[in-house]
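dude i think i finally got it to work??
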Amino acid sequence: MKLPYKINIYQEAATIFIIALCVFSSFYFYSKFPDQVPSHWNFAGEIDDYSSKGFAAFFFPALVLGIYILLTFIPCLDPKKERYADFSKAYNILRLSITLLMAGIYAIISINGIGITLPVGKIMPISIGFLFVIIGNFLPKVRQNWFVGIRTPWTLSSEEVWNKTHRFGGKAFVVSGLAMILLSAIEQEILWGVIFGGIMFVLIFGTIGYSWFLHKKATKKQL
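look at this
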């Protein structure tokens, strides 16, 4: 199957290496895990859920592999698949970044699972923040398609609205990512949780609302 975007051999090798590392390390972690492994932490960084050792060891590597396969081949199903060639670099970096984040989450859970305590409440928002900064830098380069980017009825119906929304969204992602990184230092968990929720609300509904605003503005001009 011919992919509609150009693969970067070095980034692809790095992505496959990360996945392989997850798969091979899962057998080591399985041999070291107790019967119940911490698998979820609240905003205060306290453990609030557990999973079986088999699930904790093998679920994330399978998930990372599944996401890699999905992101690699789903552009082939896109009616606008020819557009991916215009943002191959951005798409490859996105695939690598998501794989790295998922592998990082697996590493954090697994290291805690074998008894080495890590400050999950601080590491996770920092990791997600860096991913947001990366996404924000490359989001404006994403061209109109059906699977990647800020897909609303208004961005999909107008390339101008798509491009302007993604330039706005790129800035919003960068600012949100930096805010998450800075907020990770706050010790007041309730305040941190409220602000984190506010960031996500503004980021999601702000970009959707902006695309609607651009569409209405363009519609008025045509009247």
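The chain has a mean pLDDT of 89.
im so relieved honestly
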